[in-house]
Write a structure and sequence with these properties.
The chain is an alpha/beta fold. 36% of the residues lie in helices and 19% in strands. The chain is elongated.
Length: 488
């Protein structure tokens, strides 16, 4: 069940906000915090088919009520007399506002500064305050900080528990809450109306995160991170699963350290972890077994939990090299090794750089590496026995193929920038630094007559590899064509 929170300032627009929210949700929270004048609450909440939850929070609880504490409590007393379906009361206020009529009491505990490690004692206090539903709110910047909230809702208790995670891992908690029986999940009506930074909208929950399709039997695919690339991957995988009738949903995971991660993934029954290229080095230590390329490069973008532990694989490298190879096969059909004696310049300093350098050097290419960080480029060159090109000497270097892997590289004429004038019509250019997005370098290369390797093709090949490794089937082609406004 989705609950949309509305925080109107004007009584005239409050009912309109509730009406709009009611059309897209199962329940509406009317926050009285910002109303400039005392409202007729009975009039505001009458005439709606969905349950209404009324709240009025102090600033220390994340609210915006500017009156006195006495005024706030009187407003809540008036609200409960109007008999909404639910009234939210903090633990202190609950002791001053008695139960009235059929209105159910949501007793809340909010900690804006830090997550709680233990909730049992507070839970007992809230139960004693005649709670019908208990609500916890605290910061959830990572999976670890969201974990106690998950424990609170996943345990079988006499009183249902609702949780609200503030921060990047809040969406993780919301999706898991559905599977583990949380009475409702909070969402914003639309962009600009979020109750807190990063709160998903109701449309986003459905179109990107597949909220409505989650059940107690759903299998989660872990996706490390919540950037544009990760959200696009989540959307593609969720839509592919729906089209194929598979009960998989992607779960974004914000991971900043590895403490107890294996244990958490095990409890959540997550057996696959998809990693964006920018996090391929950071996440790799989670794996207990590495394929050869990952072992040599320190990079992997897919981890699968096998009977003997977690295994890491490198899918971007395979997809990128295959796409680059295909572009040359068109020019020289039937050639056995299209990279033989080709001069290949790889730009970058990351784990993905190492993976590309390793793969192309294995296939007979004459590989050079450069970076705005000369020391890092020298280290990569020594590791894989390829040529090092100082960034200052880049423009004196002739090459057939340019592969860009550095997401921080900027085009320009500065010392640490890549001047697009370097590009020649005879070059083939591939940029995998911002998968799945097209970059400025690609646009420049195309305008200068270079052969450009299609980044969308690389991305499709990569996601197909990953999806098939997890589910056993490939992504239907039409899934890639559809895209929501939230991942454009």
């Amino acid at each position: 069940m989705i609950c949309i929170s509305v925080t109107p300032e004007s009584r005239n627009f409050a009912k309109v906000d509730i009406l709009n929210a009611a059309a897209q949700s199962d329940m509406v929270e009317l926050c009285l915090d910002r109303l400039i004048k005392t409202p007729d609450i009975g009039d505001l909440i009458s005439g709606f088919d969905v349950p209404i939850l009324v709240s009025c929070r102090r600033p220390e609880e994340g609210g915006q009520f500017k009156g006195t504490e006495t005024e706030r409590i009187n407003l809540l007393r008036q609200a409960i007399i109007a008999e909404p379906a639910y009234i939210e009361l903090d633990l202190e206020t609950a002791k001053q506002v008695p139960r009235f009529g059929k209105t159910k009491r949501v007793i809340s505990y909010t900690s804006l500064k830090r997550p709680l490690n233990e909730v049992d004692d507070i839970f007992d206090e809230m139960a004693d305050a005649k709670a019908d539903i208990i609500k916890f709110t605290w910061p959830t910047p990572t999976l670890q900080t969201a974990w106690p909230l998950l424990a609170a809702i996943s345990q079988k208790r006499e009183i249902p528990v609702v949780g609200l995670g503030l921060g990047p891992a809040g969406i993780t908690f919301s999706l898991l809450g559905v599977k583990y029986g949380s009475p409702w999940t909070y969402a914003a009506l639309e962009k600009g109306m979020e109750a807190f930074d990063g709160q998903p909208t109701v449309s986003e929950l459905d179109e990107v995160f597949g909220f409505q399709k989650i059940s107690s039997k759903t299998k989660f695919i872990g996706v490390a991170g919540l950037g544009v690339a990760e959200r696009r991957t989540i959307e593609v995988f969720n839509k592919a699963s729906e089209k194929l009738g598979l009960d998989y949903i992607c779960l974004p995971l914000v991971i900043n350290d590895f403490k107890q991660i294996h244990k958490m993934l095990g409890i959540l029954k997550i057996r696959s972890l998809v990693v964006s290229p920018r996090m391929g080095e950071f996440i790799l230590p989670l794996a207990e077994h590495l394929e050869e390329s990952s072992e040599k490069t320190g990079y992997g973008d897919l981890q699968l939990n096998q009977p003997d532990g977690w295994h890491a694989y490198d899918t971007v490298r395979r997809s990128a090299v295959k796409s680059l190879e295909a572009s040359f096969e068109k020019k020289t059909p039937g050639a056995k090794n299209v990279f033989q004696r080709k001069n290949i310049l790889v730009v970058g300093k990351s784990g993905l750089t190492k993976a590309i350098v390793y793969s192309l050097s294995q296939q007979g290419g004459v590989v050079s590496v450069t970076s705005d960080n000369d020391k890092a480029a020298q280290g990569i060159a020594r590791t894989f026995d390829v040529r090092y090109v100082p960034f200052a000497n880049l423009y004196d270097t002739l090459t057939d193929i340019v592969v860009q892997t550095d997401p921080e590289l900027v085009l320009g004429s500065g010392k640490t920038q890549l001047n697009a004038a370097y590009l020649r019509e005879s070059m083939t250019v591939m940029d995998v630094s911002q998968l799945p997005e097209e970059t400025e370098l690609m646009r420049e290369a195309e305008s200068r007559g270079c052969e450009v390797v299609c980044v969308d093709e690389i991305y499709r090949k990569q996601l197909n590899q990953i999806f098939k490794a997890i589910t056993g089937v490939e992504i239907p082609g039409e899934v890639f064509e559809s895209r929501s406004d939230y991942t454009r």
